[in-house]
Amino acid sequence: MASSFLQGFLEDNPNVLYLGSLELAGKNRTSNAFKEYFRGQTGNIYNQYLGQIGSRALMGAAPTQTFTDYLVDYPWLKNFQKLSPAQRGEQPTRFAPRLSYNLA
User: Fold this and answer.
1) Which of 8, 22, 53, 99 is at 20 to 30 A from 91, Cα to Cα?
2) Are 67 and 57 spatial neighbours (Cβ–Cβ below 8 Å)?
3) Is the pLDDT of residue 92 over 80?
4) Measured between alpha carbons, how far is 20 from 42 in angstroms, rounded to an integer?
5) Residue 2 binned pLDDT confidence (cut-offs 50, 70, 90)
6) Which among 4, 1, 3, 41 is positioned nearest to 19, based on CA atoms?
7) What percent of the chain has a predicted confidence (pLDDT) above 70?
Protein backbone atom coordinates (compact mmCIF):
# COMPACT_ATOMS: atom_id res chain seq x y z
CA MET A 1 0.00 0.00 0.00
CA ALA A 2 1.19 3.50 -0.75
CA SER A 3 2.36 5.80 2.01
CA SER A 4 -0.22 8.15 3.45
CA PHE A 5 1.34 11.04 1.50
CA LEU A 6 1.12 9.13 -1.79
CA GLN A 7 -2.36 7.86 -0.97
CA GLY A 8 -3.49 11.42 -0.30
CA PHE A 9 -1.89 12.61 -3.53
CA LEU A 10 -3.67 9.90 -5.53
CA GLU A 11 -7.05 10.52 -3.90
CA ASP A 12 -6.67 14.27 -4.52
CA ASN A 13 -5.88 13.59 -8.18
CA PRO A 14 -8.44 11.04 -9.36
CA ASN A 15 -7.35 11.26 -13.02
CA VAL A 16 -3.78 10.32 -12.09
CA LEU A 17 -5.09 7.49 -9.93
CA TYR A 18 -7.44 6.26 -12.65
CA LEU A 19 -4.88 6.33 -15.45
CA GLY A 20 -2.28 4.62 -13.25
CA SER A 21 -4.78 1.90 -12.34
CA LEU A 22 -5.67 1.50 -16.00
CA GLU A 23 -2.01 1.01 -16.88
CA LEU A 24 -1.72 -1.71 -14.25
CA ALA A 25 -4.98 -3.39 -15.28
CA GLY A 26 -4.01 -3.38 -18.94
CA LYS A 27 -0.32 -4.21 -18.68
CA ASN A 28 -0.72 -7.78 -19.97
CA ARG A 29 -3.11 -6.88 -22.79
CA THR A 30 -1.72 -7.21 -26.28
CA SER A 31 -4.33 -4.92 -27.80
CA ASN A 32 -4.50 -1.19 -27.27
CA ALA A 33 -8.29 -1.44 -27.50
CA PHE A 34 -8.49 -2.27 -23.78
CA LYS A 35 -6.71 0.90 -22.69
CA GLU A 36 -8.36 3.06 -25.33
CA TYR A 37 -11.83 1.93 -24.29
CA PHE A 38 -11.24 2.56 -20.60
CA ARG A 39 -9.52 5.90 -21.21
CA GLY A 40 -12.83 6.97 -22.69
CA GLN A 41 -14.69 5.66 -19.62
CA THR A 42 -12.84 7.77 -17.03
CA GLY A 43 -15.77 10.03 -16.19
CA ASN A 44 -18.29 7.18 -16.22
CA ILE A 45 -16.28 5.05 -13.81
CA TYR A 46 -15.59 7.96 -11.48
CA ASN A 47 -19.30 8.81 -11.49
CA GLN A 48 -20.13 5.17 -10.64
CA TYR A 49 -17.79 5.47 -7.66
CA LEU A 50 -19.38 8.76 -6.55
CA GLY A 51 -22.82 7.20 -6.92
CA GLN A 52 -21.80 4.26 -4.78
CA ILE A 53 -20.46 6.37 -1.92
CA GLY A 54 -23.45 8.71 -2.25
CA SER A 55 -25.82 5.75 -1.90
CA ARG A 56 -23.99 4.60 1.21
CA ALA A 57 -24.25 8.08 2.72
CA LEU A 58 -27.97 8.28 1.95
CA MET A 59 -28.50 4.93 3.67
CA GLY A 60 -26.79 6.29 6.78
CA ALA A 61 -23.48 4.47 6.35
CA ALA A 62 -20.17 6.29 6.33
CA PRO A 63 -18.74 6.45 2.80
CA THR A 64 -15.39 4.91 3.71
CA GLN A 65 -14.38 3.36 0.40
CA THR A 66 -11.66 5.32 -1.36
CA PHE A 67 -11.40 5.63 -5.11
CA THR A 68 -8.22 3.55 -4.85
CA ASP A 69 -10.17 0.71 -3.23
CA TYR A 70 -12.91 1.05 -5.82
CA LEU A 71 -10.43 0.72 -8.69
CA VAL A 72 -8.64 -2.22 -7.06
CA ASP A 73 -11.97 -4.07 -6.96
CA TYR A 74 -13.18 -2.82 -10.36
CA PRO A 75 -13.88 -5.70 -12.78
CA TRP A 76 -11.82 -4.33 -15.68
CA LEU A 77 -11.58 -7.51 -17.73
CA LYS A 78 -15.16 -8.64 -17.06
CA ASN A 79 -16.54 -5.31 -18.27
CA PHE A 80 -14.26 -5.31 -21.31
CA GLN A 81 -15.37 -8.82 -22.27
CA LYS A 82 -19.03 -7.71 -22.19
CA LEU A 83 -18.36 -5.42 -25.15
CA SER A 84 -19.07 -6.51 -28.71
CA PRO A 85 -16.10 -7.82 -30.72
CA ALA A 86 -16.05 -4.58 -32.73
CA GLN A 87 -15.93 -2.48 -29.52
CA ARG A 88 -13.04 -4.64 -28.30
CA GLY A 89 -11.14 -3.88 -31.49
CA GLU A 90 -11.55 -7.37 -32.89
CA GLN A 91 -12.12 -7.86 -36.58
CA PRO A 92 -13.21 -11.48 -37.04
CA THR A 93 -13.93 -11.05 -40.75
CA ARG A 94 -10.41 -9.84 -41.39
CA PHE A 95 -9.01 -13.38 -41.30
CA ALA A 96 -12.16 -15.27 -42.19
CA PRO A 97 -13.66 -13.68 -45.27
CA ARG A 98 -17.31 -14.19 -46.00
CA LEU A 99 -18.23 -17.42 -47.67
CA SER A 100 -19.50 -16.91 -51.18
CA TYR A 101 -20.95 -19.39 -53.60
CA ASN A 102 -20.19 -19.46 -57.28
CA LEU A 103 -23.32 -20.84 -58.88
CA ALA A 104 -22.22 -20.35 -62.49
Assistant:
1) 22
2) no
3) no
4) 12
5) low
6) 41
7) 83
What is the spatial distance between Cα 63 and Cα 56, in angstroms, rounded to a whole number? Answer: 6
Residue partners of 34: CB distance under 8 A and separation at least 6? 26, 76, 80, 88
The residues spanned by each domain of the chain are: 7-86
End-to-end CA distance of the chain: 69
Instruction: Assess whether pLDDT exceeds 60 at residue 103.
Output: yes
The CA-based angle 11-31-43, given to 5 degrees, is 30
**Whether 92 contacts 39, CB under 8 Å:** no
Task: Count Cβ neighbours within 10 Å for each residue of 91-102 and write b for 16 or more, e otherwise.
Answer: eeeeeeeeeeee
